[in-house]
# Entry
Amino acid sequence: MDVAPITGGIHSKRMDPAVHLNEECMVQVFSFVGGRLASGVASSIAIDGGSTSEETETTEESVGLCISEAFSCYELLASVSWGWKAIVDKHSRHLYSDLCVNFEAIPIEHLEFFTDWTCLHKFRVKSILCYSGDCQKAATRILRDCDTSKLTLASIVIPANESAATTDKEDSPSNEGQQHLMLQEALAQECPELETLCFQLVVNQNDLGSDFMNPALFALPSITSLVVSVSTDCCVLDDEMIFSRLIQGFPNLQKLELESNQESFCERSNPVIFHIASTTLEHLYVPSLCTEFVYLSLDCPSLQLFICAGDATPEDRNILRLKQTVLSAESVTESCLGAIRQEDSDEQQLECFEFRKLLG
# Structure
């Protein structure tokens, strides 16, 4: 992709529709082109990922048009002529709204350019996906400079052991320990409608504490869904209250999904028992949790659905092999349903059962 500054094309004014059509008509034409682009992106997602049309519409609606695709469309129109570029620049916020800023799709050498372009036009951002520490400063700037009043989805990386306590006395913005806290602060202050927060919790030591959490973000009333992925390759995580501390501040949390890599819980003589307490939690997903070394203790009186890993025996579909151990769940009501997501099923179908079966 060519990201050189766009100065407008050299086409003859006689052939330029912008000379003969009023600005409003040109904006309508450009809006149509943008709509076609969005449809093309959705179609490519469906083809590559095998999604149904209904799933594609949901993905596009919840995530938004990718920033790199928006720039491709902008580049195509703005390079035609000076007249086109002037119109596109003037109405860019209308033409390319509800954008997804996915830093995974932006080459690192183009990161500064895309950040400058996005902030220059102050686009309305619907989702931001920042999986690398290299992008945290750019993500924070976009949250501060763009319209994020309708942003509903954020995915970030949180290094649990790089807190404000490890930063330099000069409080340098470039310090990695400070950058992720600044990003969290921007999310809390600039995203009043944030509904889903996904984050990878990178753990380098057992004693985590709470310094890696921004208190305002981890108590945001708008957040109803939380996805936590624990990642570590150099220590054994045995902080039994880590998940309870992560969710205890959310007053309206309804869905929680927990994930981990194998290394997070291996090389131990006894399984770790994680306590999960929430008065509002309704759905708990743990099929991607490393189940062999993990036990759960639940205090969730509002829980309605619990999904874990497992399979059904080939001889009898009614006999379920559950791969998650729940030691206690006294506050969970009898109406709560359990379900297993079969690992060997291409359809990822769910087999339902009474949650109480998990308790033996």
